[in-house]
């Protein structure tokens, strides 16, 4: 299943008065109804957002074995381009390690060697080892999300992720978050970067 990132994505379908919505084959609930589905750091970050921003974030429980984007997309019938992946990239300058979380649509790859390297002002940028990213973020592998990351990291958003619905991690593998892409721009320190994500193929 594939969806071009520049095509309009379908919007979630409201379900009754409780705030639940349908997207793909999943039912997504407002965070207050399923706080148990978010990692502690992510939940704290959602609670710290202005109420008129946080109210748009919804969560759905999934099979943790299907947390990887390709598997989730196929199993739950969501558009591939609706998923936004968060990858951790780092480089060094004068002995100082500089870290950035990059959020790009699943139909693209983060332009690490050019865009991210220049933004971090380092000679070489590369993906952080999984164990370091998991330990530093306090989130599970496959669940790392732009919400609730360490404040010293830069948060880089590809322009494609800030329009239309975005499915992102929840900090744990057993759930995903669904939100309007514009909510990501309200996260502390968020920077929208043109061309951060390069189309795959």
TrEMBL record:
A Pfam family per the record: tRNA_edit
Annotated InterPro entries: YbaK/aa-tRNA-synt-asso_dom_sf (IPR036754), YbaK/aa-tRNA-synth-assoc-dom (IPR007214)
Region (Disordered): 1-21
Highest taxon listed in the record's lineage: Bacteria
Domain YbaK/aminoacyl-tRNA synthetase-associated: 64-177
Gene3D superfamilies: YbaK/aminoacyl-tRNA synthetase-associated domain
Protein name in UniProt: YbaK/EbsC family protein
Organism of this sequence: Georgenia halophila
């Amino acid at each position: 299943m594939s969806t071009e990132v520049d095509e309009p994505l379908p919007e979630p379908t409201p379900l009754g008065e409780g705030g639940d919505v349908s997207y793909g084959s999943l039912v997504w609930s407002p965070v207050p109804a399923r706080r148990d589905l978010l990692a502690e750091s992510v939940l704290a970050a959602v609670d710290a957002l202005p109420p008129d921003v946080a109210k748009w974030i919804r969560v759905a429980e999934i099979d943790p074995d299907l947390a990887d984007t390709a598997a989730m997309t196929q199993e739950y019938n969501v558009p591939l381009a609706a998923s936004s992946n968060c990858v951790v990239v780092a480089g060094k300058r004068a002995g100082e390690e500089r870290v950035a979380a990059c959020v790009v649509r699943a139909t693209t790859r983060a332009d690490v060697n050019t865009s991210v390297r220049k933004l971090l002002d380092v000679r070489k940028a590369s993906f952080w080892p999984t164990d370091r990213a998991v330990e530093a973020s306090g989130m599970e592998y496959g669940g790392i999300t732009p919400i609730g990351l360490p404040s010293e990291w830069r948060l880089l958003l590809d322009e494609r992720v800030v329009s239309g619905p975005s499915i992102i991690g929840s900090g744990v593998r057993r759930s995903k978050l669904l939100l309007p892409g514009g909510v990501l721009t309200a996260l502390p320190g968020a920077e929208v970067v043109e061309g951060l994500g390069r189309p795959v193929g």
